[in-house]
Design brief:
Largest sheet: 7 strands, mixed
Shape: globular
Number of strands: 14
Strand content: 15-25%
Length: about 350
C-alpha cells in the first residue's frame, strides 16, 4: 500500500511511526493480550498512560508548575462555553480579538453568558492581525480571548497580546506543539487534539491554578474545570484511545528534537509553500498579510477558478489529497502540520509549479 500526502485541516495526518505502533498493538497492547481500548480507565496500566501523557506534554511545552494540565472531551465548541462559565465569576464582560471564523464562533457562544466586547475585529476578510496598539482592551474584563492561528483563513499572530492583569485565553488548536508558546503569559491555553496532537475526541487544557474553582454550582459538573483538576482528568471515562495515541505522538515529537526542532522544520515547509505561491506571477494567490501568514494552514486561490476541480483531480493523481479550501472561503488550503514531512510540501510545490506552467 502506498501512503499519500494528506493535507487535511483536521482530523489531520498523524506520524506514520505512531500509526504503525498503534496498528501493531491494536490486538495486543504491550503483551497483555488485549487492546488499550479494552482496558479499564481506572486500571494502573491506563493511569500510567494518563500520567505519562501529562508529564511529557509538560516537558515539551515547558508548562510552569502553577498550571494544571487537563484532558477532556467536547472539542473547541465546548471550550467556547467553558471559558466564560469558569472565568466570569462576578463579572459580566469579556474581550474577544476576532481575527477569523473560530474567534467569531467563540464570541458568539460567549454572548450566551456575558457581554462580549470586541477588542478588535478584522472582518470581513480576516487577512491580518491587529497590532498591540490597535487592541481596545478593557481592564475590567473577566478575560481576553484570541486564537493565535486561525485554521480557515490562515492568519497567525506573530506576538502574544499584552492584556495586563486580565487573564489571556488562547485557542491554540491548530498551532499546538508546532511552535513554542509562552504559557506563563496566558491564563488558559487549550487545544483540540486532531491537528497536531492525536485523533479527534481529546481536548487538552492548560490552566493557571488560580483560575480553577470559580464556576457557579448551577452549571453542569462536566463544565467545571475543577471537576477535571480534582480528579486528574479521570472524573468520568476519558477518551482512552485518543489519549494513548496522543502519548505516542508526544514520544515521536520528542524523538524529533521536541517543539523547538519541529518549529524549525515547520518554518522551512511554510516558506517553501509561500515562495511557490508568491513566485507564480499571480497564478496562485494568498491574500493574508505576509507578516501574519499561518505556518500550519496555507489557503490559496487559483487565478482562474474554473481550474479548481482540475487542480484537485490532478493533485490526487499525484497522491496529494484534501486540498480543497473551506466552504466559507473556497479555493485551496494545504494544512502542513507537524506530521506532514518536508517531502510532502516539496511534492506539492513541484506539482503546483508544473500545473501553473501547463495552464498559465
Amino acid at each position: 500500500m502506498q501512503r499519500i500526502y494528506n493535507f487535511a485541516s483536521g482530523p489531520a495526518v498523524l506520524p506514520e511511526p505512531v500509526l504503525q505502533q498503534a496498528q501493531a498493538e491494536l490486538l495486543d497492547w504491550q503483551g497483555r493480550g488485549y487492546s488499550v481500548m479494552e482496558t479499564s480507565h481506572r486500571s494502573p496500566e491506563f493511569v500510567e498512560v494518563m500520567q505519562s501523557t501529562e508529564a511529557l506534554l509538560r516537558e515539551l511545552l515547558h508548562v510552569p508548575a502553577n498550571y494544571k494540565v487537563l484532558f477532556m472531551q467536547g472539542g473547541g465548541h465546548q471550550q467556547f462555553a467553558m471559558v466564560p462559565i469558569n472565568l466570569l465569576g462576578a463579572k459580566f464582560l469579556a474581550d474577544y480579538i476576532v481575527t477569523g471564523h473560530w474567534t467569531k464562533a467563540a464570541a458568539e457562544e460567549a454572548r450566551r453568558f456575558c457581554n462580549v466586547r470586541e477588542a478588535a475585529n478584522t472582518a470581513p476578510h480576516f487577512r491580518h492581525v491587529p497590532r498591540q496598539g490597535e487592541l481596545k482592551l478593557d481592564a475590567d474584563a473577566a478575560y481576553a480571548y484570541y486564537c493565535p492561528n486561525e485554521t480557515i483563513h490562515g492568519v497567525e499572530f506573530d506576538y502574544v497580546p499584552d492584556t495586563g492583569r486580565v487573564p489571556l485565553v488562547a485557542d491554540v488548536s491548530s498551532s499546538f506543539l508546532s511552535r513554542l508558546i509562552d504559557i506563563a503569559r496566558h491564563g488558559i491555553v487549550y487545544a483540540c487534539a486532531q491537528k497536531n496532537f492525536g485523533p479527534a475526541g481529546l481536548t487538552a487544557v492548560v490552566i493557571r491554578d488560580d483560575l480553577i474553582g470559580h464556576a457557579s454550582h448551577r452549571w453542569p459538573t462536566m463544565l467545571d474545570y475543577k471537576t477535571y483538576a480534582d480528579a486528574q482528568s479521570m472524573w468520568n471515562t476519558p477518551a482512552t484511545f485518543s489519549v494513548y495515541i496522543a502519548l505516542l505522538v508526544l514520544r515521536w515529537l520528542k524523538a524529533q528534537g521536541g517543539v523547538e526542532a519541529i518549529e524549525r522544520v515547520n518554518i522551512d515547509k511554510a516558506r517553501l509553500l509561500y515562495d511557490t505561491i508568491d513566485s507564480s506571477s499571480g497564478f496562485y494567490v494568498n491574500h493574508v498579510n505576509p507578516a501574519h501568514r499561518s505556518r500550519m494552514n496555507v489557503p490559496f486561490s487559483l487565478r482562474d477558478e474554473r481550474l479548481n476541480e482540475t487542480f484537485l483531480a490532478q493533485a490526487a493523481e499525484r497522491h496529494m489529497v484534501q486540498l480543497k479550501g473551506h466552504r466559507a472561503v473556497g479555493g485551496m488550503r494545504a494544512s502542513i502540520y507537524n506530521a506532514m514531512p518536508l517531502a510532502g510540501v516539496q511534492a506539492l510545490s513541484q506539482f503546483m509549479r508544473e500545473f501553473a506552467q501547463r495552464h498559465g
